[in-house]
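Illustration 12: DUF3347 domain-containing protein.
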Amino acid sequence: MNFNSHLGKKNQNMNVFRISVIVLAFFALSCKEAIVPFETAHENLAAKLLSENQILLEEYLKDDPKPNWKTFSESIDALVSNGHPKLKTWAESLRPLVPAAGSDLESSYEKISKIQEILIQIKTEVPNQSQYNRFYCPMVDKSWVMTGKEVKNPYAPEMRDCGELLQ
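Figure caption equivalent — predicted structure in token form:
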């Protein structure tokens, strides 16, 4: 075998390698999850969930809160059955976080915080949810989603005005 035929064989192997890499890259990119657009019905379901969240957080602002998570849970169920994969994933993440009836407020705050993080994703990604704003309290290191621009911290009864509006 002379030098030129050895070099030609090496170039041929490199070309096969390059083509293989391109084919693998193409398949990897084409296997990406399809993006399903949000339709008006999906936007309405997200708005209903955020509206129920608003009602719950307003209840937590009262002196003796008695939150009722039933309607919020029903809104989660509606997200699961709507057929949109992203809404279904969010709903399935929300379900185990809903505080049980009669659970004490202190233990429910951590679950509420995790719920709010998912709702922030929904507010950000689902179109037409701009009436809701994200708030953050550095003292408790928690966020929440509510309407308006006034800070009403649902986590800290002793400091309801602690926090800031994040856009």
